[in-house]
Task: inverse folding
């Protein structure tokens, strides 16, 4: 249980950075003071050997001010105005948003809520927000809104790009060492490897 608490606080620090770093370290300090020696040694072992890093695709430190405002907005149920640049859209748009939840998935932070520009639920990638202002107006989250159900439905609705990729013989080991990333893996007579997988967009495929 002590190790589980340590792992949880480590993930909080890794995911949220400076916003919850002090709180996470404070929780670990309290845990360390309360534990008997045997459990303290167990936690010390976990610190040295059980790590979670690299959960973000890029340094998320610059996002800290945005995440703090969004965390506050979701907690206080305050509407925000944001200037947002959608993927493939050179000109950003200003939108009013009722933020319902913050979600970290696929290496990015997202805010999910009711977009008043579109009059519907929308998902916005936080690193594409150019400006964000908290408004004084509050909102109520619909009683039937369930974030888990929304994410599951959104994933089903997302377009799927089917990708077929060939690894040259000199790079074949890279493909074979990452079998969990592919749907199919076919080793070819010339030593190359052909893999197939599905992604939500070409940007993700290129990154993969």
Result:
């Amino acid at each position: 249980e002590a190790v589980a608490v340590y792992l949880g606080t480590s993930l909080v620090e890794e995911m949220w950075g400076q916003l919850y770093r002090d709180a996470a370290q404070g929780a670990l300090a309290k845990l360390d003071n309360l534990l008997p020696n045997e459990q303290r040694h167990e936690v010390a072992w976990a610190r040295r050997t059980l790590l979670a890093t690299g959960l973000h695709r890029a340094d998320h430190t610059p996002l800290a001010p945005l995440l703090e405002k969004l965390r506050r907005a979701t907690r206080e149920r305050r509407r925000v105005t944001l200037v947002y640049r959608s993927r493939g859209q050179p000109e950003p748009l200003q939108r009013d948003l009722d933020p319902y939840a913050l979600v970290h998935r696929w290496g990015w932070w997202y805010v999910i809520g009711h977009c008043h520009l579109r009059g519907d639920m929308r998902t916005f990638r936080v690193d594409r927000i150019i400006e964000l202002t908290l408004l004084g107006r509050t909102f109520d989250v619909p009683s039937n809104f369930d974030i888990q159900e929304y994410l599951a439905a959104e994933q089903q609705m997302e377009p799927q790009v089917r990708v077929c990729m060939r690894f040259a013989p000199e790079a074949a080991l890279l493909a074979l060492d990452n079998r969990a990333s592919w749907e199919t893996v076919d080793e070819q007579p010339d030593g190359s490897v052909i893999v197939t997988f599905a992604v939500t967009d070409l940007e993700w495929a290129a990154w993969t």
Notes: Residues 18-34 form the longest helix (17 residues). The chain has a mean pLDDT of 85.
